[in-house]
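Hi P.,

Sorry for the delay on this. The queue was packed all week, but I finally got your sequence through. Input first:
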Amino acid sequence: MPKLLALVLALSGCATVVRFQPDLKDGFHREAGAPYFVYVPSDWSADKSPPLIVYLHGGAERGADGILPTQVGLGPVVQASHGAFPFVVIFPQAPDGSYWGMPDNNARVLKAIDETVARYHVDPHRIYLTGNSLGGFGSWFMGALYADRFAALVPICGGVRGRAPKGAPFAQYADGPERVREVVKRIGKTPVWAFHGAADWLVPVAYSRELVQALKDAGGNVHYTEFAGVGHASWVPAYADPALFTWLAEQRKE
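Then the structure:
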């Protein structure tokens, strides 16, 4: 396992506190047999084609209950809207000991996307990928692996660095500039808005800075927000900014 990812998993391994129960009254649906929750706006109807956000959770929310991914990051923002948040949102869950970007988890996410697109008539040209910490790494990795699927990426306190084992995403590329170049090349012109806390004690802010600069140098479409004095939990101010969701809603993949 990459040295940094091992640290992320170890330090974020304490259990997340369940602060709220995802409930239908707040728009959270759990179809029979689905191992994940989907949030659907209260004004949804079959004649609409809403945009979709795919949210990748951090290390502490791994498991099989389906609830933990809703408790940190984007979930509390969505829940607080009580049905007014204007995107459909998927909250897939990675099993214990795994991380985003590995083949089984990639298949799990893509299956959830396909099911949600069909069930809720999602606009296939307006599917967005975001995540924080472990999910921030996943947003970079999956955004590069499946750039044709996403209209925009929002990686928060993530990166692509670390000594990777066989089978890990982009493990065939040397840790450092070579891997960064390959990820950036595959992301191409996909719009990216990255966030990081300048005082992040777990994932070095240099990881986001490096990727953002590489995207700029390659002519990519990238925005970057760095929060002065903010530590690892940069997802709190990032997801609290309405401008992020205004920007997301404007992105469309032709």
